[in-house]
User: What shape does this take?
Amino acid sequence: MRRKAGLAAALTVVASGCGIGDRAPGRPSPDSQVARPDKVTSFAVLYGANCAGCHGAGGKGRAAIALRDPLYLTLADDATIRRVVSQGVPGTAMPPFARSAGGMLTDEQIVAIVAGIRAQWARPDALRGVELPPYAARDKGDAERGSSVYAAYCSSCHGANGRGGERASSIVDGSFLALVSNQSLRTTVIAGRPELGAPDFRANVPGKPMSPDDVSDVVAWLAAQRPEVAGQPYPAPRAVGERR
Assistant: This one.
């Protein structure tokens, strides 16, 4: 009996030392569990995986507008940013991220991204007293007037015809215009692209900020340069029997 009792005690010690139970060999510890992708709500993780590729690390801008720009974050409210993240912008390079629109993110994750952008990078006092043109256009604008607005505010960088100058590239390139919406053009005209050296609506002409009508008109002019079909047009069909 003593031998059996001793053996049982020894087995108990061995078992406890080896971690049988919740700490059995090969069983991951509670802090090593990997969260399901749809349960991740960390702004840093979500932004890095879904936004940084276009909008840059730290929101500094890359192929797309810098999200850490205080002017942009004053111009666009949370509902606007949430809608764009959720639904994307059809016909442009901005895809939808919400599951309901074919993306991978839950509504909670999209709320976390928008809240993180605002908490990390918004500076409400930076634009205090500045009267911004509205985010959305009140009307379609006038392309003919927009030609004059372009000449006054944009041509010094983008060239007289918009095809590029010494300080900036073409703004009427068909491939570029095919990838951006009119709202994207408007946002860029107002907020600029500070990470690329492009001024906002106040600084194109010193002491003479663009009016809301100026913004709408120049966007109308830019939109009028957009080709109906992006890319190089197909050659005209040849008549039957015509030599190549």
About this structure: The domain at 143-224 is CATH 1.10.760.10 (Cytochrome Bc1 Complex; Chain D, domain 2). The CA atoms of residues 120 and 237 lie 56 Å apart. The chain has eleven helices and no strands. The first helix runs from residue 2 to 18.
